[in-house]
Amino acid sequence: MARLFFLLSGEHETLPASELKAILQTEGYVFTTLEKLDQALRIEADLRCIEAIRSRAALTRLCGLEMVYCKADTNKILKSMRSINLKRVLKEGEGFAVRIKRVKNYSPEIQGMALERRLGKVILDKAEKAKVDLEKPDKVFLGVLTEEKLILGQKLGEISPKSFVERRPRKKPFFHPSAMPPKLARCMVNLARPKVGELVFDPFCGTGSMLIEAALIDCHVLGLDIQKRMVKGSLENFAYFNINSEGIIVADARDPPIARTDCVVTDPPYGRSATTFRRTTAQLVKEVLMAASALLKKGQRVCIAAPKTLEIQHTGTTLGYKHLESHFVYVHRSLTREIAVFEKV
Ligand SMILES: C[S@@+](CC[C@H](N)C(=O)[O-])C[C@H]1O[C@@H](n2cnc3c(N)ncnc32)[C@H](O)[C@@H]1O
Protein backbone atom coordinates (compact mmCIF):
# COMPACT_ATOMS: atom_id res chain seq x y z
CA MET A 1 0.00 0.00 0.00
CA ALA A 2 1.22 3.51 -0.83
CA ARG A 3 0.19 6.97 0.26
CA LEU A 4 -1.23 8.66 -2.81
CA PHE A 5 -2.61 12.13 -3.41
CA PHE A 6 -4.72 13.63 -6.15
CA LEU A 7 -5.30 17.20 -7.26
CA LEU A 8 -8.99 17.33 -8.17
CA SER A 9 -10.83 19.57 -10.59
CA GLY A 10 -12.43 22.66 -9.09
CA GLU A 11 -15.39 22.33 -11.46
CA HIS A 12 -17.54 20.73 -8.79
CA GLU A 13 -17.47 20.34 -5.03
CA THR A 14 -18.36 16.63 -4.60
CA LEU A 15 -18.21 14.89 -8.00
CA PRO A 16 -14.40 14.65 -8.47
CA ALA A 17 -13.72 12.72 -5.24
CA SER A 18 -16.79 10.52 -5.75
CA GLU A 19 -15.73 9.72 -9.31
CA LEU A 20 -12.25 8.80 -8.14
CA LYS A 21 -13.56 6.51 -5.40
CA ALA A 22 -16.05 4.93 -7.82
CA ILE A 23 -13.17 4.10 -10.22
CA LEU A 24 -11.17 2.46 -7.41
CA GLN A 25 -14.20 0.39 -6.39
CA THR A 26 -14.94 -0.62 -9.98
CA GLU A 27 -11.38 -1.79 -10.52
CA GLY A 28 -11.38 -3.69 -7.23
CA TYR A 29 -8.78 -1.61 -5.38
CA VAL A 30 -9.07 -1.62 -1.61
CA PHE A 31 -8.33 1.87 -0.31
CA THR A 32 -8.50 3.99 2.80
CA THR A 33 -9.37 7.67 2.57
CA LEU A 34 -6.82 9.54 4.68
CA GLU A 35 -8.25 13.01 4.13
CA LYS A 36 -10.43 15.04 1.77
CA LEU A 37 -9.14 18.58 1.42
CA ASP A 38 -10.31 21.37 -0.86
CA GLN A 39 -9.61 19.99 -4.39
CA ALA A 40 -7.32 17.30 -3.03
CA LEU A 41 -7.73 13.74 -1.84
CA ARG A 42 -5.21 11.70 0.14
CA ILE A 43 -5.64 7.92 0.16
CA GLU A 44 -3.76 4.74 0.96
CA ALA A 45 -3.98 2.22 -1.87
CA ASP A 46 -2.06 -0.04 -4.23
CA LEU A 47 0.19 2.11 -6.43
CA ARG A 48 -1.14 0.36 -9.55
CA CYS A 49 -4.52 2.05 -9.13
CA ILE A 50 -2.99 5.21 -10.66
CA GLU A 51 -3.28 3.65 -14.12
CA ALA A 52 -7.01 3.14 -13.67
CA ILE A 53 -7.46 6.74 -12.58
CA ARG A 54 -5.39 8.03 -15.50
CA SER A 55 -7.31 6.07 -18.07
CA ARG A 56 -10.82 6.66 -16.72
CA ALA A 57 -11.17 9.84 -14.68
CA ALA A 58 -12.61 13.09 -16.02
CA LEU A 59 -12.39 15.22 -12.89
CA THR A 60 -8.93 14.38 -11.52
CA ARG A 61 -6.04 16.54 -12.69
CA LEU A 62 -2.84 15.16 -11.15
CA CYS A 63 -1.77 12.10 -9.18
CA GLY A 64 1.25 11.75 -6.90
CA LEU A 65 3.05 9.51 -4.45
CA GLU A 66 3.03 11.37 -1.14
CA MET A 67 6.39 12.04 0.55
CA VAL A 68 5.68 15.08 2.68
CA TYR A 69 2.44 16.25 4.27
CA CYS A 70 2.79 19.21 6.58
CA LYS A 71 1.62 22.68 7.51
CA ALA A 72 2.14 25.18 4.69
CA ASP A 73 5.09 26.82 6.39
CA THR A 74 8.29 27.21 4.35
CA ASN A 75 10.65 26.20 7.16
CA LYS A 76 8.56 23.14 8.06
CA ILE A 77 8.33 22.13 4.39
CA LEU A 78 12.08 22.40 3.83
CA LYS A 79 12.83 20.54 7.08
CA SER A 80 10.45 17.71 6.12
CA MET A 81 12.00 17.49 2.65
CA ARG A 82 15.50 17.24 4.13
CA SER A 83 14.43 14.15 6.07
CA ILE A 84 13.26 12.26 2.95
CA ASN A 85 15.36 9.49 1.46
CA LEU A 86 15.52 10.38 -2.22
CA LYS A 87 17.78 7.54 -3.35
CA ARG A 88 14.91 5.39 -4.56
CA VAL A 89 13.26 8.27 -6.40
CA LEU A 90 16.16 10.00 -8.14
CA LYS A 91 18.79 7.89 -9.85
CA GLU A 92 22.25 9.09 -10.82
CA GLY A 93 22.17 11.56 -13.68
CA GLU A 94 18.38 11.96 -13.68
CA GLY A 95 16.87 15.38 -14.27
CA PHE A 96 14.13 16.69 -12.02
CA ALA A 97 11.80 19.64 -11.59
CA VAL A 98 9.68 20.89 -8.70
CA ARG A 99 6.19 22.23 -9.40
CA ILE A 100 3.93 23.83 -6.84
CA LYS A 101 0.18 24.07 -7.51
CA ARG A 102 -1.96 26.30 -5.38
CA VAL A 103 -5.65 25.56 -4.86
CA LYS A 104 -7.64 28.83 -4.94
CA ASN A 105 -5.92 31.39 -2.75
CA TYR A 106 -4.56 29.20 0.02
CA SER A 107 -1.30 30.17 1.78
CA PRO A 108 -0.76 33.48 -0.07
CA GLU A 109 2.34 34.15 2.05
CA ILE A 110 4.13 31.31 0.23
CA GLN A 111 5.52 32.28 -3.15
CA GLY A 112 5.21 29.26 -5.42
CA MET A 113 8.31 29.88 -7.53
CA ALA A 114 10.50 30.71 -4.54
CA LEU A 115 9.41 27.50 -2.83
CA GLU A 116 10.10 25.50 -6.01
CA ARG A 117 13.66 26.90 -6.09
CA ARG A 118 14.34 26.27 -2.42
CA LEU A 119 12.99 22.70 -2.61
CA GLY A 120 15.10 22.14 -5.74
CA LYS A 121 18.17 23.15 -3.78
CA VAL A 122 17.33 20.75 -0.92
CA ILE A 123 16.89 17.94 -3.46
CA LEU A 124 20.21 18.77 -5.14
CA ASP A 125 21.96 18.74 -1.76
CA LYS A 126 20.55 15.29 -1.03
CA ALA A 127 20.94 13.75 -4.48
CA GLU A 128 24.17 15.30 -5.72
CA LYS A 129 24.27 13.35 -8.94
CA ALA A 130 20.84 14.47 -10.04
CA LYS A 131 20.34 17.65 -12.04
CA VAL A 132 17.63 20.23 -12.49
CA ASP A 133 15.83 19.89 -15.83
CA LEU A 134 12.81 22.12 -16.24
CA GLU A 135 12.21 21.20 -19.90
CA LYS A 136 12.10 17.41 -19.91
CA PRO A 137 12.53 16.19 -16.33
CA ASP A 138 12.76 12.45 -15.65
CA LYS A 139 11.03 13.02 -12.33
CA VAL A 140 8.73 15.78 -11.14
CA PHE A 141 8.20 16.66 -7.49
CA LEU A 142 4.68 17.98 -7.20
CA GLY A 143 3.41 20.07 -4.31
CA VAL A 144 -0.22 21.02 -3.69
CA LEU A 145 -1.01 23.93 -1.40
CA THR A 146 -4.51 23.65 0.00
CA GLU A 147 -6.25 24.48 3.28
CA GLU A 148 -2.97 25.83 4.73
CA LYS A 149 -1.31 22.43 4.16
CA LEU A 150 1.24 21.21 1.64
CA ILE A 151 1.12 17.75 0.10
CA LEU A 152 4.34 17.00 -1.74
CA GLY A 153 5.58 13.96 -3.58
CA GLN A 154 6.57 12.38 -6.84
CA LYS A 155 4.18 13.13 -9.69
CA LEU A 156 2.81 9.88 -11.11
CA GLY A 157 0.30 11.06 -13.65
CA GLU A 158 -1.62 13.85 -15.25
CA ILE A 159 -5.06 13.75 -16.85
CA SER A 160 -5.03 16.10 -19.81
CA PRO A 161 -8.29 17.97 -20.47
CA LYS A 162 -7.39 18.06 -24.20
CA SER A 163 -9.28 14.98 -25.31
CA PHE A 164 -12.41 16.12 -23.45
CA VAL A 165 -12.16 19.53 -25.16
CA GLU A 166 -12.03 17.70 -28.51
CA ARG A 167 -15.31 15.96 -27.69
CA ARG A 168 -17.27 19.05 -26.66
CA PRO A 169 -20.82 18.92 -28.09
CA ARG A 170 -20.12 21.60 -30.73
CA LYS A 171 -17.02 19.76 -31.95
CA LYS A 172 -18.99 16.63 -32.78
CA PRO A 173 -20.39 16.30 -36.31
CA PHE A 174 -23.94 15.96 -34.96
CA PHE A 175 -24.82 18.67 -32.44
CA HIS A 176 -27.90 19.19 -30.32
CA PRO A 177 -28.24 21.74 -27.48
CA SER A 178 -29.39 19.01 -25.08
CA ALA A 179 -26.02 17.21 -25.32
CA MET A 180 -24.20 16.43 -22.08
CA PRO A 181 -20.66 17.88 -21.73
CA PRO A 182 -18.11 15.04 -22.09
CA LYS A 183 -16.52 15.41 -18.64
CA LEU A 184 -19.87 15.18 -16.89
CA ALA A 185 -20.90 12.30 -19.17
CA ARG A 186 -17.66 10.41 -18.33
CA CYS A 187 -18.12 11.11 -14.64
CA MET A 188 -21.70 9.75 -14.76
CA VAL A 189 -20.45 6.60 -16.51
CA ASN A 190 -17.81 6.15 -13.80
CA LEU A 191 -20.40 6.63 -11.03
CA ALA A 192 -22.39 3.72 -12.52
CA ARG A 193 -19.19 1.63 -12.03
CA PRO A 194 -19.08 -0.50 -15.22
CA LYS A 195 -16.03 -2.74 -15.59
CA VAL A 196 -14.14 -3.01 -18.88
CA GLY A 197 -16.17 -5.11 -21.33
CA GLU A 198 -19.48 -4.63 -19.51
CA LEU A 199 -22.55 -3.23 -21.22
CA VAL A 200 -23.58 0.42 -20.64
CA PHE A 201 -27.11 1.28 -21.76
CA ASP A 202 -28.48 4.81 -22.38
CA PRO A 203 -32.24 4.75 -23.09
CA PHE A 204 -32.31 8.51 -23.95
CA CYS A 205 -29.09 8.55 -25.94
CA GLY A 206 -29.59 11.82 -27.90
CA THR A 207 -26.23 12.67 -29.51
CA GLY A 208 -24.53 9.69 -27.83
CA SER A 209 -22.36 11.57 -25.28
CA MET A 210 -22.68 9.00 -22.46
CA LEU A 211 -22.05 6.07 -24.76
CA ILE A 212 -19.02 7.68 -26.43
CA GLU A 213 -17.44 8.20 -23.00
CA ALA A 214 -18.29 4.63 -21.95
CA ALA A 215 -16.86 3.18 -25.17
CA LEU A 216 -13.62 5.14 -24.66
CA ILE A 217 -13.04 3.30 -21.38
CA ASP A 218 -13.60 -0.01 -23.18
CA CYS A 219 -17.19 -0.75 -22.25
CA HIS A 220 -19.74 -2.16 -24.69
CA VAL A 221 -22.47 0.35 -25.44
CA LEU A 222 -26.13 0.22 -26.43
CA GLY A 223 -28.53 3.12 -26.85
CA LEU A 224 -31.96 4.12 -27.91
CA ASP A 225 -33.83 7.29 -28.66
CA ILE A 226 -37.42 7.83 -29.69
CA GLN A 227 -36.36 10.16 -32.52
CA LYS A 228 -34.88 8.67 -35.68
CA ARG A 229 -32.84 11.82 -36.34
CA MET A 230 -31.14 11.52 -32.93
CA VAL A 231 -30.29 7.86 -33.59
CA LYS A 232 -28.81 8.83 -36.96
CA GLY A 233 -26.91 11.66 -35.27
CA SER A 234 -25.52 9.37 -32.56
CA LEU A 235 -24.30 6.97 -35.23
CA GLU A 236 -22.63 9.85 -37.06
CA ASN A 237 -20.83 10.86 -33.85
CA PHE A 238 -19.81 7.26 -33.16
CA ALA A 239 -18.30 6.93 -36.63
CA TYR A 240 -16.36 10.19 -36.13
CA PHE A 241 -14.73 8.81 -32.93
CA ASN A 242 -14.32 5.27 -34.37
CA ILE A 243 -16.71 3.78 -31.86
CA ASN A 244 -18.55 0.50 -32.33
CA SER A 245 -21.84 0.01 -30.54
CA GLU A 246 -23.97 -3.05 -29.86
CA GLY A 247 -26.75 -1.05 -31.48
CA ILE A 248 -28.53 2.31 -31.45
CA ILE A 249 -32.24 1.71 -31.74
CA VAL A 250 -35.25 3.92 -32.47
CA ALA A 251 -37.47 2.96 -29.53
CA ASP A 252 -39.27 4.19 -26.42
CA ALA A 253 -37.18 4.19 -23.22
CA ARG A 254 -40.27 3.16 -21.26
CA ASP A 255 -40.39 -0.15 -23.09
CA PRO A 256 -36.81 -0.96 -24.15
CA PRO A 257 -36.52 -3.85 -26.63
CA ILE A 258 -33.55 -5.38 -24.81
CA ALA A 259 -33.20 -8.16 -22.25
CA ARG A 260 -30.33 -7.08 -20.01
CA THR A 261 -27.60 -4.56 -19.32
CA ASP A 262 -24.83 -4.18 -16.73
CA CYS A 263 -25.69 -0.57 -15.95
CA VAL A 264 -27.77 2.38 -17.12
CA VAL A 265 -26.38 5.91 -17.57
CA THR A 266 -28.87 8.45 -18.81
CA ASP A 267 -30.18 12.01 -18.96
CA PRO A 268 -33.90 12.12 -19.83
CA PRO A 269 -35.43 15.13 -21.60
CA TYR A 270 -36.48 18.04 -19.37
CA GLY A 271 -38.96 19.50 -21.89
CA ARG A 272 -36.68 22.47 -22.66
CA SER A 273 -34.12 21.82 -25.40
CA ALA A 274 -35.14 18.14 -25.56
CA THR A 275 -38.79 17.25 -25.96
CA THR A 276 -40.59 14.85 -23.60
CA PHE A 277 -43.30 14.05 -26.16
CA ARG A 278 -46.20 15.11 -23.95
CA ARG A 279 -44.98 13.20 -20.89
CA THR A 280 -43.59 14.98 -17.85
CA THR A 281 -39.93 14.45 -16.97
CA ALA A 282 -41.08 13.06 -13.60
CA GLN A 283 -43.21 10.41 -15.39
CA LEU A 284 -40.37 9.53 -17.75
CA VAL A 285 -37.89 9.17 -14.86
CA LYS A 286 -40.28 6.90 -12.99
CA GLU A 287 -41.08 4.78 -16.04
CA VAL A 288 -37.48 4.42 -17.15
CA LEU A 289 -36.34 3.49 -13.64
CA MET A 290 -39.05 0.81 -13.57
CA ALA A 291 -38.00 -0.51 -16.99
CA ALA A 292 -34.29 -0.44 -16.02
CA SER A 293 -34.94 -2.49 -12.90
CA ALA A 294 -36.10 -5.39 -15.09
CA LEU A 295 -32.82 -5.29 -17.06
CA LEU A 296 -30.40 -5.20 -14.11
CA LYS A 297 -29.14 -7.82 -11.69
CA LYS A 298 -28.87 -7.20 -7.95
CA GLY A 299 -25.98 -4.82 -7.16
CA GLN A 300 -25.93 -3.21 -10.63
CA ARG A 301 -26.46 0.52 -10.94
CA VAL A 302 -28.31 3.35 -12.65
CA CYS A 303 -26.80 6.83 -12.87
CA ILE A 304 -29.47 9.32 -13.91
CA ALA A 305 -29.70 13.11 -14.15
CA ALA A 306 -32.82 15.26 -13.76
CA PRO A 307 -33.78 18.73 -12.55
CA LYS A 308 -33.22 19.00 -8.80
CA THR A 309 -36.84 20.06 -8.26
CA LEU A 310 -38.01 16.53 -9.15
CA GLU A 311 -36.24 15.00 -6.13
CA ILE A 312 -35.46 11.82 -8.04
CA GLN A 313 -33.81 10.19 -5.06
CA HIS A 314 -37.32 9.70 -3.65
CA THR A 315 -38.57 8.33 -6.99
CA GLY A 316 -35.78 5.74 -7.00
CA THR A 317 -36.18 4.66 -3.40
CA THR A 318 -39.97 4.44 -3.75
CA LEU A 319 -39.40 2.04 -6.65
CA GLY A 320 -37.23 -0.17 -4.42
CA TYR A 321 -33.75 0.95 -5.44
CA LYS A 322 -31.02 1.68 -2.90
CA HIS A 323 -29.95 5.33 -3.25
CA LEU A 324 -26.13 5.45 -3.23
CA GLU A 325 -25.36 9.13 -3.77
CA SER A 326 -26.62 12.40 -5.28
CA HIS A 327 -24.70 15.41 -6.56
CA PHE A 328 -26.18 18.77 -7.51
CA VAL A 329 -24.81 20.54 -10.58
CA TYR A 330 -25.74 24.17 -11.22
CA VAL A 331 -26.40 24.72 -14.94
CA HIS A 332 -28.09 28.15 -14.99
CA ARG A 333 -30.49 30.24 -12.92
CA SER A 334 -33.48 28.03 -13.63
CA LEU A 335 -31.77 24.64 -13.78
CA THR A 336 -29.74 22.71 -11.22
CA ARG A 337 -29.33 19.05 -12.09
CA GLU A 338 -29.42 16.23 -9.60
CA ILE A 339 -27.16 13.35 -10.57
CA ALA A 340 -28.32 10.34 -8.62
CA VAL A 341 -26.85 6.84 -8.42
CA PHE A 342 -29.12 3.93 -7.55
CA GLU A 343 -28.36 0.28 -6.95
CA LYS A 344 -30.75 -2.55 -7.71
CA VAL A 345 -31.46 -4.51 -4.52
C1 LIG B 1 -31.60 15.28 -22.79
S1 LIG B 1 -31.61 14.46 -24.30
C2 LIG B 1 -30.29 13.34 -24.13
C3 LIG B 1 -29.00 13.99 -24.42
C4 LIG B 1 -27.86 13.03 -24.42
N1 LIG B 1 -27.49 12.61 -23.07
C5 LIG B 1 -26.66 13.66 -25.11
O1 LIG B 1 -25.66 13.94 -24.44
O2 LIG B 1 -26.75 13.92 -26.29
C6 LIG B 1 -33.00 13.42 -24.17
C7 LIG B 1 -33.29 12.56 -25.39
O3 LIG B 1 -34.39 11.72 -25.07
C8 LIG B 1 -35.14 11.50 -26.24
N2 LIG B 1 -36.48 11.03 -25.82
C9 LIG B 1 -37.56 11.74 -25.42
N3 LIG B 1 -38.55 10.92 -25.04
C10 LIG B 1 -38.07 9.66 -25.21
C11 LIG B 1 -38.61 8.36 -24.95
N4 LIG B 1 -39.83 8.19 -24.45
N5 LIG B 1 -37.84 7.29 -25.22
C12 LIG B 1 -36.58 7.44 -25.73
N6 LIG B 1 -36.04 8.62 -25.99
C13 LIG B 1 -36.76 9.72 -25.71
C14 LIG B 1 -35.11 12.81 -26.98
O4 LIG B 1 -35.31 12.58 -28.36
C15 LIG B 1 -33.68 13.31 -26.64
O5 LIG B 1 -32.80 13.00 -27.67
Q: How much of the polypeptide forms β-strand, as a percent range?
A: 25-35%
Bound molecules: S-adenosylmethionine
Seen as an oligomer or otherwise, the chain set is single chain
Number of helices: 10
Low-confidence stretches: none
Question: How many β strands by DSSP?
Answer: 15
Largest sheet: 8 strands, mixed
Q: Could you say how many structural domains there are in total?
A: 2
Helix proportion: 25-40%
What is the first-to-last residue Cα distance?
Answer: 32 Å
User: From the coordinates shown, what is the CATH architecture of the largest domain?
Assistant: 3-Layer(aba) Sandwich
Give the tags.
single chain; Rossmann fold; 2 domains; alpha/beta; binds S-adenosylmethionine; 29% helix; 345 residues; 7-stranded mixed β-sheet; VC0802-like
Summed up:
By secondary structure, the chain is α/β, with parallel strands linked by helices. Helices cover 29% and strands 30% of the residues. The protein folds into two domains: 2-158, VC0802-like, CATH 3.30.2130; 162-343, 3-Layer(aba) Sandwich (Rossmann fold), CATH 3.40.50.
Annotate the secondary structure layout.
Elements: E1 2-8, H1 15-26, E2 31-37, E3 40-45, H2 49-56, E4 60-71, H3 74-82, E5 95-102, H4 112-126, E6 131-132, E7 139-146, E8 149-158, H5 162-166, H6 182-191, E9 199-202, H7 209-216, E10 220-225, H8 228-240, E11 247-250, E12 263-266, H9 281-293, E13 301-307, H10 312-318, E14 322-332, E15 335-343
Parallel strand pairs: 5-6, 5-7, 9-10, 9-12, 10-11, 12-13
Antiparallel strand pairs: 1-3, 1-4, 2-3, 4-8, 7-8, 13-15, 14-15
Helix pairs in contact: 1-6, 3-4, 6-7
This protein binds S-adenosylmethionine.
The site of S-adenosylmethionine (SAM) has 24 residues, from helix 7 and strand 10.
